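DM from R.C. (forwarded with permission)

"hey, sorry to bug you on a friday — could you get me a structure for this? deadline for the figure draft is monday and I only need the backbone to look sensible"
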Amino acid sequence: MKPVVIYGIRNCDTMKKARAWLDARGIPYAFHDYKVQGVDRELLEGWAKKVGWEVLLNRGGSTFRKLPEADKAGLTEKKAVALMLDQPSMIRRPVLEAGGRLRVGFSPDTYDEIF
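My reply, with the result:
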């Protein structure tokens, strides 16, 4: 099985819950803080193809809400990917890669299904 990688931002509350869930079950994982380490275009575009850019873009977060209206208008995959590359905190979190599967967001039930 491929190693488990969880992507997100260290201090995000949802990330803390997801990592605590993995830790409590003794599931080894690598953590990639995309606010510190960044995220490359190829990876982000691959995620967008698998789950849809609409799922990846965190429209509810303050970073997105603070954007000028012109940046939020007429969103396309290309524009959304560019925004997320420029400001990774706009990527919904966590993004979990496990066993060839990709999940965005955290819910204990979904993680139970995966593991």
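R.C.: lifesaver. The first strand starts at residue 5 and ends at 8.
me: no worries. DSSP finds seven helices and four strands in the chain.
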